[in-house]
């Protein structure tokens, strides 16, 4: 079975955040910058649910992140590149 970031759609649990983060090979600051969120917010996504520092990503932000990573996994520069190439 082939790995796909889309397997994590609609499931932004701390465990899934950690698995996706590990798979993407980016640093936490790189991911936060890509998403346009603060580093501490992104770190909060990784925190256990019972910790005060925990932050649950909005499902729309989470899913867009996954689509962006999936486009890159497929060899596109970005999700925009994916859509532009699909419509040529």
Overview of this protein structure:
The radius of gyration is 13 Å and the shape is globular. It has 88 residues and is mainly α. The mean pLDDT is 94. Helix 2 packs across helix 3. It has helices at 14-24, 28-35, 39-46, 59-73, 79-86.
Q: Key terms for this structure?
A:
88 residues, mainly alpha, 5 helices, 57% helix
Topology, please?
Blueprint: H1 14-24, H2 28-35, H3 39-46, H4 59-73, H5 79-86
Helix pairs in contact: 2-3
Write the H/E string, N to C: HHHHH
**Average of pLDDT:** 94
Distance between the termini: 30 Å
How much of the sequence lies in strands comes to under 5%
User: What profile does the largest beta sheet have?
Assistant: none
Number of DSSP E strands: 0
In short:
The protein has 88 residues and is mainly α. It is built from five helices and no strands.
